[in-house]
Structures are given as structure tokens and as C-alpha cells.
Design goal:
About 35% of the residues lie in helices and about 25% in strands. It is of the alpha/beta class. The protein has a single domain (about 1-225), classed as P-loop containing nucleotide triphosphate hydrolases (Rossmann fold).
Length: about 230
């Protein structure tokens, strides 16, 4: 997937300004930056929930930024949100039955995320952390080509975070491209193959985790100098 010159203005606020990046199969691309740097806006544009002011997005060389959300999902671009997105009245098993009806679902992801013993539980009765993992599990279980994960580790306990790491690595090793937004550097950096740092709506850094941590501009704008 290729993002080229993407900009987005909300009135007088320039949320993104000429952002370009590439996301490749079989890798985790970490998208980091301070609050308000444009991370979630970029995920919204890639997934089709937000219309860009300028720029374009291509998948396999074909422009997709004019397609709606459903058509992007059909092409394998799926998004997990910061909040839990489930069907509260359906059981965990029923969620994956629906998924299996429309895609080559990978139900093994349930076990990885600690949900295999909750198959009969109604989603709305699950603890919030498990609801979030169920929403992420639906994305990863759909065998996406591009998975957009917005702060997936937020609110999770240490054991749940480790399960999430395992599921993300498995999806990557299966050929998926995963773009992961998270503020927890201890979580996202060891997972990442490459890192993009956004600052004030622009790309401040693009490279590996070690290079990001050593970059003086990143340290000054985001990580701090301590």
C-alpha cells in the first residue's frame, strides 16, 4: 500500500500535511507521535472513514482513495478502533460464525487472544479488555491484507498484551501488512519492522526503531531527552 501526499484540513486546522509512506506485506509498520500529530486521522483516511483534502492511496498500484469503506474491506483493508467494536448481544462464537460466512476466517486467533474459553459468552458481558481483544480478533481473524490497529494495547494487562503481540506477529508472518498506532513504546517498538513518526501532521522520521530512538529531532519533539 502506498500513501502519497495525503493532507487533511478540518476547517482551519491542518491535521495532515503531505504525508507519504509505504506499507509492505509481511511487516509491522509502527505509526507513532504525540496526541494531535495526525495518526488516527491517517488511519481514518486509509480505511475510508475520512475523506482526504489532497493526495492519493494505492493498493497494488491501483488507486483506492475514492472507494468507500465497504469496498476497501472487500479488498482486505480492515481497521480496529481505539474503543471496542462488537455486537453486544452476540456470543463470541457467533461473531466468528458471521466472519466465517464472509471470509476464510482464522479461528485460531481466538486461542491466541485468550477467548477460546469464552465462546458462549455474550460480547456485551465480557470485561472491556476482552471486548477490545474480540474486536481486534475479528480484524486479524479475517486474514486481512492491511490491518490498521489503533492503540490496540491500551487498557490491557501484561498477559493480554503478550497475547496481542503473539497474534500480531502471527498475522505478519502470514503475509499481512499491519499498521499499528500506539503510545506504549515498550509494546510497539519490539514489534515493528519500520517506524514512522508523525509530528504536527507531517512525517518527522521514517526508519527502524533504533534510528528513531537516536534521532535528535524525534527526541526533542516526542521522546524527550532524558
Amino acid at each position: 500500500m502506498s500513501v502519497r501526499g495525503v493532507s487533511k484540513a478540518f476547517g482551519a486546522v491542518q491535521a495532515l500535511d503531505g504525508v507519504s509512506l509505504d506499507a509492505r506485506p509481511g511487516e509491522v509498520l509502527a505509526l507513532v507521535g504525540a496526541n494531535g500529530s495526525g495518526k488516527s486521522t491517517l488511519l481514518g483516511i486509509v480505511s475510508g472513514f475520512i475523506e482526504p483534502t489532497a493526495g492519493e492511496i494505492q493498493l497494488d498500484g491501483v488507486r483506492i482513495d475514492r472507494l468507500g469503506v465497504r469496498e476497501r474491506v472487500r479488498r482486505g483493508i480492515l481497521r480496529a478502533f481505539q474503543h471496542a467494536v462488537t455486537f453486544p448481544g452476540l456470543t463470541v462464537e457467533e461473531h466468528f460464525q458471521i466472519l466465517a460466512d464472509v471470509t476464510d476466517a482464522d479461528e485460531d486467533v481466538l486461542g491466541q487472544l485468550g477467548l477460546s474459553d469464552r465462546m458462549a459468552s455474550v460480547a456485551g458481558s465480557l470485561p472491556l479488555a476482552l471486548q477490545r481483544l474480540l474486536g481486534i480478533g475479528l480484524v486479524l481473524g479475517a486474514r486481512p491484507r492491511v490491518a490498521l490497529l489503533d492503540e490496540p494495547a491500551a487498557g490491557l494487562a501484561a498477559e493480554e498484551i503478550e497475547r496481542l503481540r503473539s497474534a500480531i506477529r502471527r498475522a505478519r508472518d502470514g503475509g499481512a501488512c499491519l499498521i499499528v498506532v500506539d503510545h506504549d513504546m515498550d509494546f510497539v517498538l519490539p514489534l515493528s519492522d519500520r517506524v514512522v513518526v508523525l509530528h504536527a501532521g507531517t512525517v518527522l522520521f521514517h526508519g527502524d526503531a533504533a534510528g528513531m530512538q537516536a534521532d535528535e529531532r524525534v527526541r526533542s519533539a516526542y521522546l524527550g531527552t532524558a
